[in-house]
Amino acid sequence: MWTQLGVMTTTAAVAAMILGCTQPASGPSVVVEDKVYAVSPPSVNVTAGIMRGQIIEMKVTERIEQGSGNVVSPAKLTGKLMLKNSSADQTVRLIGGKIQFIDSQGQPIKLEEKRIEPTVKFSTYGAAERLDPGQETTQTVDVDFPAEALKAKKLKEIRLDLVYLPSSYREETVKLPVSIAVQ
What we know:
CATH architecture: Sandwich
Structural class: mainly beta
Strand content: over 45%
CATH topology: Immunoglobulin-like
Distance between the termini: 108 Å
Largest sheet: 5 strands, antiparallel
Oligomer: single chain
Shape: elongated
């Protein structure tokens, strides 16, 4: 009995030391902040064939570790692409788009390794990607942005290549000669 009591006391003492002496590791907490770069102008008109619209609310954001200046999350370009089918007789099926960042010499600025080529993808097949004459759609833009383009006077323009399929749109009236017979 004295042996069991001794073992229980020792076990309780060890458990108390482990629980009482254990403190959560508290290193310096890392503060991350968003560094926002204004795109000038923040909105630009878009014309591509029968498609009209604009890109609005453009900005570039990267996440930086405060104090050290280390980049936690690389730069991204965000905004909204608003498009309207300006044709009177063609429906448009939106496929996608490719974005290029062009430097002051007219050359594309390449993304760093392991970054995704900037593309605009429209929703899966359905009403959101089909625009009848006069219809509009809005698509968010959220793409990787090259770090090289953040340097002063490096970026000259952003190029958007839209891919869409136009097809004829017709409305016709069909007359059905009918009469009602009295029964």
